[in-house]
Amino acid sequence: MEEKRALKILTDLIAIPSVNDHEADVADYLAGLFDGYPVQIKRVTFAPGRDNLVVTMGEQGPFLGFSGHEDVVATGNEKDWAFPPFSGTVDQGLVYGRGASDMKSGLAAQVVAMLDLLESGQELPGRLRLLASVGEETGEYGAAQLTSEGYANDLDGLVIGEPSAFDIKVTHKGVIDYKVTSVGKSAHSSRPDQGFNAITPLLTFAQRVQSVMAENDQSDATLGQLTHVLSQIGGGEQINSVPANAWLTGNIRTIPAYPNDEVMAQLEDIIEDLNKAGAKLSISYSYPEPPLPSQADTQLALLAQNLLKDTFHRSGALTAGSGATDASEYTKAGHLPIIIVGPAAGTTDHQVNENVAVDDYLTGCKFYKALAETFWAKMGNE
Ligand SMILES: [Zn+2]
Question: Per the confidence metrics, is the pTM higher than 0.85?
């Protein structure tokens, strides 16, 4: 495809303000690009105005998946931007805008690769599916929906186009955000015997959870140990009342050797124990995500690495990601090799003046196309 047209697809995508919502506009735009081609297009609605998009091409053979999220984070103060955040301004070799890096450049490059393969007019020796998701930035629930509805089941490999500067992220930690609330009974603080202090059992929980998390010495060769941070605490109404309510939150980053189920069971054991002793504690979670076990030994990772190093003279280093991605959900499809590799540097994500280098983006378009062709050729011979 002409570079000008490939670039326009990126800047058009940036111009859609899909800030934690409105992903249907992105889905509509992408679906329109495939008009007239032999593909199957499926919108998977999460909520009104929020459509995941699935585009499938090819009839038989090895089945590769491309994945990108359609949403972006908020802009922050627009006045702090050198160019308006949804303008997609190209300046001195960089494309600026919210999502330029995270991750409309990855998504656009995957789509350009698919269009290039379709425009070759050749019969395809394999299959390719784009999974464009909603809500990645606020809980990966689009990918969760696509996974539970089976869209990742038949795939032989999946490539997530998050910014990685052409490193290949083959593992990352999971996350558990939890909130514990404590219910007591208020009373005048001069008569504490008439009330029940909601703060007291919460403090006991805080101490117990810290020692339980610290006791576990499981470690991952790449990711290190689980981390736990008590991140917020609140409660009580005023200085001379026995508090009737209290709460705290914690953030846990999990590893494959000490997985989410085990951690959550331990949290719940502490709660149960304290409740037996008279507390009224309850725990809730906000979109817990499992870790991505290492994919370093998969064919997919090695193919991508060789291609990046030999053909594109880019990094191809196998590294660990820093946070949960849609991979946390897709990995639940089971036995699915997943790598995270994208063209953007990722140094300006979630910041003002987010950008991607034009050259990196265009290389990404060619890399994804070559990866699909290599994957089809290699996996077809196995
Ligand atoms: Zn992202």
Answer: yes
